[in-house]
Amino acid sequence: MNYFKKMMGTAKSPPRASLSEIVWSWVGAFLGVTAVALINYNTLGETDLVLLIGSFGASAVLVYGAINSSMAQPRNLIGGHVLSAIVGVTTYQLLHEPLWLAASVAVATSIAVMHATRTTHPPGGATALIAVIGSAKIHELGYVYAIVPAGAGAIIMLVVALLVNNIPKDRNYPEFWY
User: Fold this and answer.
1) Is residue 106 in some structural domain?
2) 74-131: per-residue pLDDT in tens?
3) Angle subtended by helix axes 19-43 and 152-165, to nearest 10
4) For residues 37 and 176, what is the distance between their CA atoms, to the nearest angstrom?
5) Which of 163, 127, 158 is nearest to 52 (CA)?
6) 58 is a domain residue
7) pLDDT score at 11
8) I want to staple 58 with a disulfide (CB 3.0 to 4.6 A). Which of 1, 63, 111, 123 is the partner?
9) Whole-angstrom distance, CA of residue 37 vs CA of residue 21
10) How far apart are alpha carbons 160 and 8 in whole angstroms?
11) Which of 173, 87, 75, 175 is nearest to 125 (CA)?
């Protein structure tokens, strides 16, 4: 019975975000995703490279909307994406059939690697998953996937986060680099 009682939770819901926090989170996310998307479509559109991946949407929530979270810090943003991309590509290359198993191994292993390296960034699990279940274009990138899109996209989002998150006096980003 205690097992099920733990599922009730022990804390109250977090306080509401201020209007300023909502606005700055929106501005940061808009500019960060716009920067990655514009480079993707205007610069890489005619190449085999891709810069915009779904896991960056979740990264935007952290680096623009939850800037005080340890999982939103630069080390976690970049390390989480790059390491998870490497795990995902390796998993796909070694174990791409059955796909359900490769997907599970990639996500679980990326979590373990992020924990071990103190780079936990939840969107990293999606980055590993995309390396396994992504399109042929993603698979053809091989380990380049860890550099472009994972590393380069994370760095672009980080630069925008540094610029936007420090405009308001009541926001300070990052809390730590290393």
Assistant:
1) yes
2) 999 999 999 999 999 999 999 989 999 999 999 999 999 999 999 999 999 999 999 9
3) 140
4) 27
5) 127
6) yes
7) 86
8) 123
9) 24
10) 38
11) 87
Sorted by sequence, the CB contacts under 8 Å of residue 64 that are 6+ apart come out as 24, 25, 26, 27, 28, 29, 32, 161, 164, 165
| Cis-peptide, bond into residue 174, ω within 30° of zero | yes
CB-CB contact of 165 with 171 (8 Å): yes
What percentage of residues in the chain have a pLDDT greater than 90?
89
- Please spell the DSSP secondary structure of 93-132, one letter per residue: HH--SSHHHHHHHHHHHHHHHHHHHT---THHHHHHHHHH
| 3-class secondary structure, 66 | coil
Does residue 4 sit in helix, strand or coil? helix
Contact assessment for residue 54 and residue 126, using Cβ atoms and an 8 Å cutoff = yes
Number of domains in the chain: 1
Report field, pTM of the whole predicted structure over 0.90: yes
3-state secondary structure of 167: coil
Whether residue 178 is contained in a domain is answered as: no
Alpha-carbon distances, residue 8 vs 5, 152, 154 (angstroms): 5, 41, 36
Which range marks the domain in which residue 101 is found? 19-165
- Confirm whether 4 is domain-assigned: no
